[in-house]
Amino acid sequence: MNGRADRAQVLIAGGGVAALEATLALRALAEERVAITLVAPESDFTYRPLAVAEPFRVGDVRRFPLGPLVEAAGAVLQRGRVAAVVFFVRARKPDDNLLAGVSTRRLVQVRVG
Description:
Elements: E1 8-13, H1 17-30, E2 34-40, E3 44-47, E4 62-65, H2 66-72, E5 76-79, E6 84-87, E7 96-100, E8 109-112
């Protein structure tokens, strides 16, 4: 396989813990057989375990630039939002893939048709 276009394309929607872990796991399992693009609206990864304590000055929410984390995981970061996913059965290639790392605070609509 010579370049990105020769590999199966995987789109991971989200920029949180689940999306980063999925990127790392997919790269470890599929190695260079896939080209991974992570789509996220934020430019930073926000580590939120202590977010509830932040107003009380007990804990800090930590932020890290998302780009270097995604690059280190072997993927490409595309800034943006995935508003909907539409699959057209006849036009869909067998090597097109989507993985959504969905937060409990956001609603993602997936239409199949």
